[in-house]
Design a protein that fits this description.
Layout (H helix, E strand, L loop, with lengths): L2 H20 L5 H25 L4 H28 L4 H41 L1
Helix pairs in contact: 1-2, 1-4, 2-3, 3-4
Length: 130
């Protein structure tokens, strides 16, 4: 999957979150949850775009960690919305699955990036000690 493919998936996910929030009932609890999930569910889109133009590998890793945190928070809000039955569980399955898939992709990217940074760090240490 290319960066552009992932950017599109994050944009599509953000748009689905927006539509979900707009369809929530106008109750105090629904609106409180809507305010939370609109922030956490749309920020991975902008944070991933930011990661794509990171200044360094460490900056990239840091920005991916922000994406991971926001996706995990969104998964939690989706679970709460589902279990509270504000929106039917059937209607939330696809967006929950996409959230979980994006989270797995980002988590794997974080592991890869960390491994790369660890290898670079070990290489520079061994070169300096010679």
């Amino acid at each position: 999957m290319t960066k552009d493919d992932l950017k599109k998936r994050f944009k599509d996910f953000a748009l689905r979150i927006i539509r979900l929030v707009d369809s929530m009932p106008n109750t105090i609890s629904s609106q409180a949850l809507a305010k939370q999930i609109i922030r956490s569910g749309t920020s991975p889109f902008s944070n991933y775009r930011s990661a794509c133009i990171a200044k360094s590998d460490k900056d990239f890793l840091n920005k991916l960690k922000m994406v991971e945190e926001e996706l995990d928070e969104t998964a939690g809000w989706l679970e709460l919305i589902s279990e509270s039955e504000i929106i039917s569980k059937d209607r939330l399955v696809l967006i929950q699955n996409e959230c979980n898939e994006l989270l797995k992709i980002i988590t794997a990217s974080i592991v890869t990036c960390r491994n790369k940074l660890n290898c670079i760090g070990k290489d520079s240490i061994s070169k300096n000690s010679k």
